[in-house]
């Protein structure tokens, strides 16, 4: 594949705090090609999580354009735009957070099954994905019976199993100890390269950022 999967043009967002307008995303322009990995770095409060929220439509910019797979979104927050973003999150964009977002009432394999079902991918081998992420032996356990690292591997299995074009990961190893974080990150990068999906990874961790193809520093942007 070639071309651009994600194009961000002159994106701006300010929050209002105590009556003051606080700019967070300032005239940001960048793009991500299919299969590419981009680390978003910057000091705490520089807008990494805000940017990821904008990239999956959970927040609306003040102005600027986000184009995903050649479909453009501006600052409209009407029902049609919100529904379209929801459809993209269901089918095309996998989101991973610092803490694994698993349904407590479902086993790990049923969590993966839920995600593939939502994405309309009914022929996925959910156990295979858990195995690929290194937690195949935990497939029938419930989230409160596995470690943080195992839960995060299951969360990664969930997003990879939906065959996304783009994964947005916000500090996905931030709650893990160094050794576990390194192992989970290695799985993330291996499977990302193998599947050819693009990755935008927000992180404080310079070692993790160095594993990405490119780095966008929000402290320096704007
Ligand atoms: N809903 C909101 N309303 C007002 N201000 C907000 C809101 N969300 C974020 N902010 C502010 O926007 C700035 C950027 O926050 P954000 O969470 O994106 O930073 P971050 O780079 O992810 O930080 P960290 O590294 O600590 O996770 C911060 O100053 C934060 O206080
Ligand atoms: Mg953050």
Automatic annotation (TrEMBL):
Claim: Chloroplast is one of the keywords in the record: no
Keyword DNA repair attached: no
Gene Ontology cellular component list: plasma membrane
Matches recorded under Gene3D superfamilies: P-loop containing nucleotide triphosphate hydrolases (3.40.50.300)
GO MF: ATP binding; ATP hydrolysis activity; transmembrane transporter activity
Alphabetized InterPro entries for the sequence: AAA+_ATPase, ABC_transporter-like_ATP-bd, ABC_transporter-like_CS, ABC_transpr_LolD-like, P-loop_NTPase
Pfam families noted in UniProt: ABC_tran
All residue ranges annotated as the ABC transporter domain in the record: 8-221
Keywords from the UniProt entry: ATP-binding, Nucleotide-binding
Protein name: ATP-binding cassette domain-containing protein
